[in-house]
Amino acid sequence: MSLPQKVPVATLGVPRIGRRRELKFALESYWSGKSSAAALLETAKRLRAANWEEQRARGITRIPSNDFSLYDHVLDTIVLVGAVPARYGWQGGEVPLDTYFAMARGSEGNAHAECGNGCADPAHGPHDGVPALEMTKWFDTNYHYMVPQFSSDQAFALSSSKPVDEFLEAKALGIYTRPVILGPVTLLRRGKSQEEGFDPLALLPRLLPVYEELLRRLRLAGADWVQIDEPALVLDLIPNEREAFRFAYERLAKAAPDLRIMLATYFGALGDNLDTALSLPVAGLHVDLVRAPEQLEAVGRLARKDLVLSLGLVDGRNVWRADLCAILDRIKPVVAGWPLARIEVAPSSSLLHVPIDLDLETALDADVKSWLAFAAQKQGELVTLSRALAEGRSAVLAALKAASQAAAARAASPKVHDPLVEGRIAGIGAAMKTRASDFATRSRVQRDKLGLPAFPTTTIGSFPQTAEVRKARAAHAKGELSHLDYEAFLKRETEAAIRWQEEIGLDVLVHGEFERNDMVQYFGEQLSGFAFTKHAWVQSYGSRYVRPPIIYGDVSRPRPMTVAWWQYAQSLTPRPVKGMLTGPVTILNWSFVRDDQPRERTCRQIALAIRDEVVDLETAGATMIQIDEAALREGLPLRRSEWKAYLGWAVECFRLTASGVADATQIHTHMCYSEFNDIIDGIAAMDADVISIETSRSQMELLDAFRSYKYPNEIGPGVYDIHSPRVPAVEEMTALMTLARKRLADGQLWVNPDCGLKTRKWEEVRPALVNMVAAARQLRDAA
Catalytic amino acids? Predict the structure, then answer.
């Protein structure tokens, strides 16, 4: 009797942070000088081994290697191909660990004006005061990646053995893996050049020999498959970009003929790039059937029959339990006509974007928990789907039945549906989404009321969450510190922050947000329809991990959330203190959002809740209210044809939040790491009085959009990169603002950091903000 044929199960990649955030603590210990490089690398090795062993134990048959990273997989690829900018002083060979981290985080020390943007002069030290690479969001996720920087004279060289080393590391443990590599076309397309008119894709012929050599080394090491990720295939491509894929993969397929390539696409539909993808000489193709289930029919019909199809059936970016029977029903027509030997089951994308294990959560509401699946549970779902395809549904009947029951219970639960919220949504009218007067009228009223100087200075909201703050929060959560004592502690921290801001001369103050754990979680914990976890960490960048809230039901605001803390801070000073809120689109995009209704409907619910808070702050006396929309740009669909619809409801939700106040109340917003050129109409339509944005790493490049559009409102271009430990000099900030003045009128400009200062240390923040205030004063003197 022959054994039933098995359908391989792949994960594409798994979280690398460790079940107890071991990587975070190892990184931060190394960066602080408390531990050695050897200790950091040993922790990383243990985490990789644990990931491989756990996947094998769960039944995963296509286990990835090289999906682990100390900081960022795109940065790993930059290092792999030797695309290290000259300012880091690298002279070839293996890229040192400290150079790697200088690219990721910048380095401490003084910047040297004679070196330009960073310093490669050996007399100044190899990384003295050098800034980090630019950082932005990976496609439409909340994961940040380091942006490759290319030049027309770029040279490439294989400068890391990491993919081979980690394949051999797993092999020594008896685990045969499929190495994962970021593809050459996506690498070039996600990179930038400082040279006007130069397309990094022109570097492809120079880059491919490095990939070819890597593939040959992997084959010599014993690999028989390699996963090459090309998510750029789900973007709008022009003919030369499609031709770049054909050119690249014709070369790569010949580099190591016995090494089979699984080409992985994700985050959307191949759409008009399907013919290109299917024409490539690869052995396998992965498609995202969660974001784009409709593409399955065309892929199954048009793909050649010797191609291995990797079906992305389980959501790699959200936490909801899959309805396994519904998935099987949906794919049945295609799978029935496809040889099982040519099928793999997988998540829609790498599981990097979801928490590690639901079993770690012991305090979640039992009903909500029954509706969820994290990375470990999603692997179990994939194994169940594999068995159902290979052995029939009867082989896994209990698991299928449990999944269906969970889906039915969730759909019917009164915890999910609130008739009062439904009524408020139905009552939204046009007047609720428009300020009473235009910006020109409002700005005159606000200038008269606020009396601010030219180039007013402020910060984005948060101040350092010190060890003392975190310790007090933890003690309060454990019941070891009473509520009254905890509140007294927070008031002392707030008062100290207010006094210090007054002392250094900031014009518009913030209360520091010491009571807040996270800019989304803090609000979600006070809103209905949200659930929170204890251990469901997800990597945002480097050692910065977040626990996104889970929006499982209709959203409303039972009571005011920030008014009391704003009132206390404002009582301490005659200077204006901003009310600080997170906007509805950012709360949506930085949460795990319910998938049983359109995202825009959930966003409108959040907008109404935050609108209530805005009105209450104004009633309490706030003259400035900042509604952060850090994530508005990252939610933009990957296909341009879908932008108008998204921006329509996203901008509407911001305006719904901000439009309930009088002309004299100044509305601020903040956006992180966003390319604005293509959506400047949407940014303007938000009609915020003041917008602050990240510009320091891009050398004010992002302001070009505001200049060409003749943006009328006020802008605070960030002059201090808060994601780096380095302290920028006064001259550096003044130079950045000088660039800003070439693009915008003086009366439009504010001076502020790139982002909130929560993750930095006071010893970095204090001198940086002192320098920032000094830079603003120099600008006023020179104006």
Answer: 723
